[in-house]
Design a protein that fits this description.
By secondary structure, the protein is an alpha/beta fold. The strands form 3 sheets. Strands 6-7-8-3-9-10 form a 6-stranded mixed β-sheet, with helices on both faces. A hairpin with a 2-residue loop joins strand 9 and strand 10. It is globular, with a radius of gyration of 20 Å. The relative contact order is 0.14. The structure holds adenosine-5'-triphosphate (ATP). The site of adenosine-5'-triphosphate has 10 residues, from helix 1. Keywords: ATP-binding, Nucleotide-binding, Transport.
């Protein structure tokens, strides 16, 4: 697999606090990577650096390098970045006193020249993407009148029409009910493009990501398959709760569960200890 992104010695300090500390990893074409870790670990900050939001890599507080196809990301124009990355972040700007159709059209902008007219192909792309996220009926709805979950699905559909090589998603399952959590992550998996996303739900991350990066306090603690990263020892240390790892009987995926000691039923605990990998912080 060819390397798309190379992150080397990436560090970011704000007000003497280390937000990201000496991060190193590469991303190969076609990988689906989940970034996991507790609140404040630096997950969103890492995504922001990778996509060089607001040209932030020029900031003197950020050191190290990010290369896209062997070229420093600092050398890419905003339009080139948008051609390579489709980004759905958690905090959206106030663009959304718009119809769903207008929000979707914004996904086509990186590939268009100024004043170019919408083609039938564009309209078909928008309709297809909305159908994929179950919102074909919402084309003429006001974006800001949709529920949080529906808005999230529109933004993912907008990223789909952008047809970029790398999809960056910050908590894509936020606001989604369990049905759409699986729908959206399955959809993302079936795109056959490179995906980097932050995910809070470790079991969803395990099911849908082939590789996980575990961050804690700005440090990259582990990088590997779900089975390698979701170890009870690592997770109980990072999240501060006892943790057990098991294999899901239906999916065969590595799964983890956390619990408080107060919630353990004595006999069950002994069985669990015997059958599964368990660790306490
Ligand atoms: N612009 C900023 N100014 C000051 N501190 C910041 C800034 N951006 C991020 N931080 C701090 O950096 C740390 C990492 O934040 P970040 O949003 O990347 O964490 P996260 O892992 O995505 O958290 P969450 O799971 O809660 O979304 C936090 O302590 C946050 O307060």
């Amino acid at each position: 697999m060819s390397t798309l992104l190379t992150i080397s010695d990436l560090s970011w300090i704000i007000q003497k606090k280390s937000i990201l500390h000496n991060i190193n990893f590469t991303v190969s074409k076609g990988e689906v990577i989940g970034i996991i870790g507790p609140n404040g670990a630096g997950k969103t900050s890492l995504l922001r650096c990778i996509t060089n939001q607001a040209n932030m890599l020029v900031s003197k507080n950020i050191s190290g390098s990010i290369k896209l196809k062997n070229r420093s990301i600092r050398q890419f124009s905003a339009k080139e970045i948008a051609q390579h990355f489709a980004v759905v972040m958690q905090k959206n700007d106030s663009i959304f006193a718009l119809s769903v159709q207008d929000v979707m059209k914004m996904g086509l902008l990186p590939h268009k020249s100024l004043f170019s007219i919408d083609s039938d192909h564009d309209k078909a792309q928008i309709a297809l993407a909305l159908t994929k996220v179950g919102l074909s009926h919402a084309l003429h709805s006001h974006f800001n009148l949709l529920s949080g979950g529906e808005q999230q699905r529109v933004l993912i559909a907008r990223a789909l029409v952008q047809a970029s090589q790398i999809l960056i998603l910050d908590e894509p399952t936020n606001h989604l009910d369990v049905y759409y959590q699986h729908q959206v992550l399955q959809l993302v998996n079936n795109l056959n493009i490179t995906v980097i996303m932050t995910v809070h739900d470790l079991n969803l991350a395990s099911l849908y990501c082939q590789r996980l990066l575990l961050l804690n306090q700005g440090h990259l603690i582990a990088d590997g398959t779900p089975e390698e990263v979701l170890t009870p020892q690592q997770l109980s240390q990072v999240f501060g709760l006892p943790c057990q790892q098991s294999i899901d009987a239906i999916t065969g995926a590595t799964q983890v569960s956390f619990y408080l000691k107060e919630h353990c039923v004595q006999n069950n605990t002994q069985n669990v200890m015997q059958n599964n990998r368990v660790s306490t912080p």
